[in-house]
Each structure stands twice: as structure tokens, then as C-alpha cells.
Amino acid sequence: MTKKPATPAQTILLVEDEKEMANEIKAELEGLGYLVRTASIAEAADAARVGDAAMIVMDRIVFGEDSLNTLEALRKEGVKVPVLVISALSSIDERVHGLKAGGDDYLAKPFAMVEFVARVEALLRRLDDVRTTKLRVGDLEMDLIEQKVYRGETRIDLLPREFKLLEYFLRHPGQVITRAMLLEEVWQYHFSLETNVVDVHISNLRKKIDVRGVPSLIVNIRGAGFMLNANA
Amino acid sequence: MRMLEVFRSSAVRVALAFVLVTTVATTAVFGLVYLQIREANETRNRVILEDEAAKSVNLPVDALKTAFEVRLTHDLRRVDYAALFSADRKAMFGNIDVLPAIPVDGKAHYVAASPVQGTVNLPGPAVFVALARPDGTIMLLGRSLLETLAFRRIVQNALAAGLAPMLLLALAIGAFFARRSSRRLTDIHDTIAQIMKGDTHLRLRVRSRNDTIDKISEDVNLMLDEIMRLLVQIKGVSDNIAHDLRSPLAVVYAQLERGLENTNDEQLRVVVKQALTHIDKAMLTVAALLRLADVEYGPKSSKFRPIDLAAICTDLFEFFEPLATSKSIKMTLEIESPVQMLGDGDLMREAVSNLIGNAIKFTPENGKVSVSVTEEDGRPVVRIRDTGIGVEPAERDKIFQRFYRTASGHRVPGSGLGLSIAAAIANLHDFDLRFDDNDPGAVFEMVGRGRQASGNFAHANHPSV
Lengths: 232, 465
Fold this sequence. Notes:
The structure holds 2 protein chains of 2 kinds. Chain A is an alpha/beta fold.
């Protein structure tokens, strides 16, 4: 896990009624330098309204109440705080429901902490500027309008799906990206796979974008997933 | 319905027995009536003849002759016989030429046939009394039994005329009931077959009439309800276990992860890493179990939308092909045209991905995996063929069961729930998931049961199209 104190310390509000789970999440995020405050859904909503929360992590059902109702109300008021919904309800329908209500991401329990952290960080560092037309890391440049990719002066031919894959990495430089995140975002597959297909796709992409003698732009993060080396 | 089945049904046997008994009874009644009447008739003839003979035995010959003539003249039906024979048995007068071979004793005797004078060809049985007169002549009186005979024929005809329609009627009624009860039995048979195939919500039809079949159907339905209740309970227990396990597992996992970060004790790190691997496996299984429960209880077909099975498979093919290539497996795709159906695209994608993933997993290097999507007899069919290790015949029934993994499959990582999930998804979409031998390798087929509404959906929703 990359330890990277977020500066200034960002406050994450945690709405979770399972104490053990809450403690673990708190410990994990605090270990990464975030400020974590457990809160009731109403408290979290209030904090979000006054801009006092960098993001909210909410369990779907808290003390028997569906927190999506509050989230929906919050979105109607125009509050844009990033929200990660974690839930024991794992079906695709529930996921769609969660995202429709205004969740930015939906993670079904049980999850590995790396998966959770990767999603929290992705949301915290989300690029809100969707008008970007060019993405760049080091000498790798992606032109979103022309749909072209260059490494230095060299034009790189990518298949449509490879393009999307690289785009996702370029939009999240320096962040841990899990296989599940790639499956969901690049392929829209919302189920777990018991094979390492994603790794094969990454390795194919690497072969195309990497330059001989230079460390790969996309590195493996053991036990977690991948990361685009932002400092390349 | 086939004739054979009609005759095999117990109702038909009952009907046939009924027909038989009725026939015998009716025949017996007719027969009895006939016998009674004939008996009475013959007795009367005998008594009258004997009495008449006795009375006229002493009449003078002239008077006798007159009496005979009167008697024969009045006998318009020509059933009476009267004649006098000389002592040497020569006919003297009367309508009989030859004395029948009966004792001359004044008692009535049955004679099979006797010609009547002046009436040619009038054979028939008759009763005769022969009596010796004081002058030595022999007086003969008789009465034809032709009428009795005619009466017998009438009775026989009546019997035949009555029996034939009755037989037909009984047969028809029997066939009707047999057909009806056999149709109901066929219905029950079909329903049970469907229930065993997985339509567990179906129940046998019970009518308000409440006959034996209804009673038994009711009992079977109660039994099915009970089985379903137990099944749901068992599933619920395993789902609850999975549900309750997920939080502690996630917590333990996180705690161990954190511990791993904070220790430099190499020995401890090794142990913790091993523990994490196992917890990871457990979490995979729990997640798959919950996924299975989601599929089985979750989406309703009312939420289905038109999807293109061919597009889904093309997408998955492109997704999996690099994996196959990395294992030097040649992967091919056969798709002719869009295959429209109603369904949940995400779920269908998941089911097919499980099958393709399996095929690649169990196929050795330089093997082949082919994916084809076709419409056969209007039914969508997805077929995934591989040249892998296949499935042992003994294991073929079990591969769709929860957690079942083939003996050879144990070497390959996985939850053992992939095929169960695929089967549950297939079933939800009214597809059968079947296995076949590819010799070598395996063929998994998802075949629509023909209720997918497929391409007609567009027409149903947009009549103008």
C-alpha cells in the first residue's frame, strides 16, 4: 500500500453501524493520513451541506434505514460531495439503485481493504474537469478528440478497448487501480472473474506503450492491482 | 391420446367390466322371461291337448269328423292338428297324413317336425297326443310350436336390438371417463415433470369437484409446499451463514493486513500472508454464494429488456481472446446475425463469461475454444466448445451442483460455484444449461426453452413496426 499523507488532511465521513467494520475502515484510512469521523447519516448530510466533508462512505443500510433516501435528497439539493456506498446488498439491481440515487461508486461487502482504499482514493482525486481533451503522463499523451496516443513522437495504435483502458489509467495517475475497478469501468462487467484476463490485457497494453529500456508506465501493485506511474 | 393408453387406464378396465356385467344381466333377464313364457305356453298346450283328447275319445266317428272339421276350419293360424287313423295307422281324415312316431297313450309328446296336410313346407316342432279309441282307431291331436318359436325369435331380436346400443353406450361412457381421467393423469405427470425441471412454483390443478384425483393432487401440492419450505429454509441457512460471515471475514482480513504492515517479524509475516490467502479464498466463496442467492431470488423476469445475445458474446469473446492467446489456445467465434431475446444483459454476460472462463481454464496449451451463437428452431443457443480435459461420465450429473468440482478441477483455483451461477442465470432466462462430450473436451450449451419471446418482442411492444 502506498502511504501518501493527504495534505491538507481531508475529512472522510463514515456512516457504518457495524462497529468492528467501522473501526477497521477508520484505522485503515487514518493510517493513510486521512481524518475519519464516524457519523450518523443525518450528521454526514449536514456536514456535506456546509462543505465539511471531502467525501462520505456510507453503508447502504444503517440501523435498518436505507441511507440512499438521504443521499437522494442531498443530491437534489445540489450537494456534490463524493459518496462511496458500501453494502451487503450485492446484486446488480442494488448497485444500479445505489448509483442512481447519487452514489459515485458502489462496493459490495465483503471487500478487501485494498479494494476499498483504491476506490476511496479514486473518488477523492476524481478529475471533475470532464472537458479535458488531452491526457498526459510523462511523454505519453492521449488526444481524446482525435482518439490518438503518442509516446514521445511515436504514434501508438490501440484497439478501442485498449484505448479505454489506457484512458482510465491516465485519468487516475498514481492511484491504485484494482482489477474489479477496471472490469467495472472499462468493460462494464459487474461480476467477479476467477481468471486473470485483466492482467493479460494490461500486459498487452504495456507491450504497446512501453519503451524498451525504460521502466514500464503501468506497474503491478502486489495484492492490489495496478498503478500508472505518475512520475515517469 | 393414443389408443393403447386408453386401454391401459384403469377406468377403461372398469368400464369394460361394467359392459360385460350389464350384458350378462340383460341377457339373463331376457332369457328368463323367454323360458318362463315358453314353459307356460307349452304346459298349457299339453294340458289342453290331453284334456281334449280325453274328452273326445268316446265320440262317434261322424261327430268326431265334424268336430275336427269345425276345429280345423276355425284354426286360421293353422296351428292345430287333428286327424284320425285306422287301427293299421292309415289316415282316415284330418290334416295329418302320417301318424308321428309317438306312443299312443293319451299323453302329450314333443315332435320335432310334422307336415300338415294342405300346407306345404310348414315344418316346425309341435306337441301331439295320440289316443286309441274304443273302435281301435287312433285319434291324433296336435298343436304347432311355431308360434313359440316365433316368440323366441322376437325375444332374441329384442335382445340384440337392445344390447347393441347399450354396449356401444357403455363403451362410449367408459371411453369418455377413461379419456378424462387419463388426461388428468397426463396433466399431473406433465406438471410434475416441469416441477422437477425447476419450475418449483407450479402446483397440480385441484378442481372444486374434490374427487380422488383432486384429493391426491391436494396432498401432492401440500407435500411440494413443504419441500419448498424446507428448501428455502436450507438455502436461507446457507445464505445467512454467508451473509453473516462476510463482515467478520472482511474485518479479520483488514486486521491481518494492518498487522502485516506494522510488523517486521519475518516468521509472523509468512503466517499472516498464508492466513490472508485462505481468507481471500473464503471471501471468494462467500461472495459467490451470495451472488448465487442474488440470482436465484433477485431479478424478476418482468425487468427483462431486449438484449442481443450475439453482441454480448462478441464482447466477451474480445475480452477473453487475449487470455486464450496467452495460453496458445486458438479461440474462434461463430455468429451469423443478432440473436434478440428478453433478458438481463449483465446476468447473461456473467453466465457466458463463466462458461468461457471455464473452457479456457480447463483447456491445455495449443487447444481450441469456440464460441457460437445461433438460433435453432427459433430458440437462441450459445455453445462453448473446448478441447480440454472434459468431464468424466460419472461426474456429468454433478457439475451443476453447488461447490462441485471435478477431481481434475481441484488443481485449478476457483470457488466451484461458477457453473451453479451460470445454471441459475440460465434457468432464470428460461434456458437449459447442458453439458455434452466434445471428445476430447467439453461442450456447454445454453439452449432457450422457446419462451424467450425473442425477436417478436419488438413487434409486441410496437405494433406499428
